Amino acid sequence: MRAYIKLLAILIIISGSGLAAAENEGQAGLAFLKVGVDARASGMGEAYTAASNNAFATYWNPAGLMGSSRSNVVFMHNEWLFDVNGEFGALQFRSNKSSLAFHVYSFSVGDIEVRSIPSDMPLETTGANYLSAGVSYARSLSQNLDAGLTVKYLYEKIFFESAGGFAADLGLLYRGLLPNLTLGGTIQNLGKMGEFKDEATTLPKIARLGAQYAFPQALGPAKLLLVADLVKPFDENLRGHFGAEAGLWKQLMLRFGYMAGYESRSFSAGLGIRKSFIQLDYSYSPFQDDLGDGHRFSLYLAL
Predict the structure, then answer these.
(1) How far apart (Å, rounded) are the C-alpha atoms in residues 292 and 275?
(2) Does CATH place domain 5-302 in 3.40.190.10?
(3) Helix (H) and strand (E) counts in the chain
(4) How do residues 25-48 score in pLDDT, each as one tens digit?
C-alpha cells in the first residue's frame, strides 16, 4: 500500500549497498546504528574502535571513555544522503578510575512519498524516525586494560508504526602489547526490540576489532596517527576500515580514510581545528553511482 522504495534504498546503502547487501542477505533493521558518529572518526574511515577517547566513545567503544583526561560534551550533525539527517550529543563525566556518560542519537528520513496505486502524484509524504538514548560506564581494570558498557533505549517510527527496545554495547581497550599501540574490541547492539507491526525488528549486531598506533616522534611539524578496524556485522560480510591523521603544530588535523567491503563508498577525508578546550571537525564522504555526498560536522568542548 505504501511506497518503501526510498527508505529501502537508504537502508541498503547503510548496510553495504547494492550487490553486497544482496549477497550477504542482511536481515537486521535499525540500520542507522551502523552509521558512525563524529566527523573525526568519519574522516579516518570510521576506524575508531581503538581511537575514540571522549564522549563520542559512547557510540564506538565505551571503554574509550577512559582515554579522556577531562569531562567533556560533544555534538555532531550529519548531512547524509537524500533527505537523511543525523544528530548526536553526549556528555561525559570523568573521574580518576572511572567515567560516566550519556548520549542521544537521532536519525530521520524525510519526504517519503505515500501511494496506494501507481501515480505521478503521491497521496502524501511522511518520514521515518529513529532514536538511541543511553548511559555508558567505563572503568580501568588495570594499568593497561579498560572496560566499558553502554545500555541504551532504542525507538523507531516509520509511517504510523512504532516500536521500542533496549540494547547494550560491551568494549575493551588494551595498551600493553607494544609502546604507542592501543588495541580495542567491542560488540554492539546486543538486545531486543518490541513488536513492530507484525514482528520485532532484529537489531544489527556488530563485532569490531581495532588498533591505533601513534608515532612517537613527529615528522617535522606533523604528528602521525594510524588506525585500522575489522568490522563484522553478524548478518553481513567482513569489512576493513583504515585511516590516518596528521596533526600539524598541534592545532590543525588532516585526515584520510578508506573502507573496504562496501559497494557505494570507499574514501573519506576530513580536517579539524584544535585549541585547548575546543575542537571543531569536518568530514567528507563521497558516494558512488551519483548518490551524493555525506558531510559531518562535530564539536568537542572540554569541561
Answers:
(1) 32
(2) no
(3) 4, 16
(4) 456 788 899 999 999 999 999 999
